[in-house]
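<derive_structure_tokens>
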Amino acid sequence: MKRFFTYCNLSYLLFCAVLLPSFAFPQAVDSTEQRLSTVPDKVVINNIFIIGNEKTKKNIIMREIDLQEGIYYEWEDLISIIEADKKKIYNLQLFNSVEITPLLTGTDQIELLVSLTERWYIIPNIILNLADRNLAEWWTNQNRDLSRVNYGGRLVHNNVGGRNEKLRIGGQLGFTKVFEVLYSKPYIDRKQKHGLAAQFTYFTQKTIPVKSEFNRQVFYRNENEDVLRKNTAAFLRYTFRGSYYNFHFVTAGYNKTSINEDVFTQNPAYFLHGTNSLEYFLLGYSYRHDNRDNIAYATDGQLLNLGLTRYGILGSDDIKDTEFTLNANKYFRFSDNFHFVSGLSFNTFFGQRQPFSLVRGIGYNPNFIRGYELNVIEGQQVLVHKNSFRFKLFDWGIDVSDYMPLDEFSYLPFKVYLSANFDHGYVNDRNKIPENLRLTNQYLYGYGLGLDLVSLYDMVFRFEYSINSKNEGAFFINVKAPF
């Protein structure tokens, strides 16, 4: 009998959604208030219905919904919470579209309809990418060398069992040979607060960066040796999500890097402990506050990442050092078409020198300054402040359902933003390496204009022309949002 009434309620709800489109959120909230002579001061949610989740479990979606059945809400508060819940569900990156529709069924009674369009979760990936830091590095510094291309295959499942679990298995050949396995389970408890993830990676390289000179990477290849570097890494991560926007991570890991002894002829300080094998355990803690409207390309909200990592926790480890990282981004939306983004990044090692495999600086992800894409600026402390004013030129999509039988790919969205950018920063190199003093230990900046394209499955392509503080200008193509 209970199932019968639930079916009747859902049928009625869908009927109302068709006949009363003015109640749909968010497009028609304004028209709703215009049509109603009076908007209820308070409403109570009788039921929350979810449709479109053919694979995703209901509890994974409900974890992101702050609204509850049987509770009275002020109307304005309800609309605000609906918008926040909609963003949280979308940021699971499991759905192409999310709509939350409140439907009045009485004077102060509403039913809540959550309508979803799922993404394609099992994706066989063809790996075809460059081994270099960015396209400009490959095109200019490496003379478009096709031997530096990586190729292979990867199986990615982004929603194992409909529980938002991630599985990635991949094999790569080419410039860097890689085998990787990753499994992530966001929740291991009923209250959905605790999660676990494990990763194993093994890779080999015949050509490796051994140092930097004049703020450019220097690569070395020994024709007599098949492999110059081997790396094995394994990590186990525990996650605690106490509230909607706050995450805590504890990571324990193991890393072993072995190099051919000929590498020391190019850089005697590649490792600092006297052997050609660097082996250590690590332990790290990080905190993330993430309240962005879209984690792939945000236009509103804020992001804060703090991290502290200890390299070498056993007496036998080959390194003893500690690293602190900070990343803080703020997104200001002034209107639907115009927003401003500002991001501050800071990284520091406590030790005086680090093995080359742990070198940080501008040019290494995630720290960069526009206009310096061709450079690496290495040191123990890195401070970068990035800024972008963005104007949305257009937002449209193409319905290809007549040609594409899969609903997950039936609509191709396109958003294009014009950006005006200004980045600046500083790298402190305690060792003051003479070959790199042109850019280390001094104030740096870069500025320019760009076009950002955001498309299907939140893919981002950036086309930018930038000029740096040395008055060097160039055109750069990048993937992924800079913030």
User: Anything to note?
Assistant: DSSP finds six helices and 24 strands in the chain. Helices lie at 2-19, 29-35, 58-62, 75-90, 135-141, 263-266.
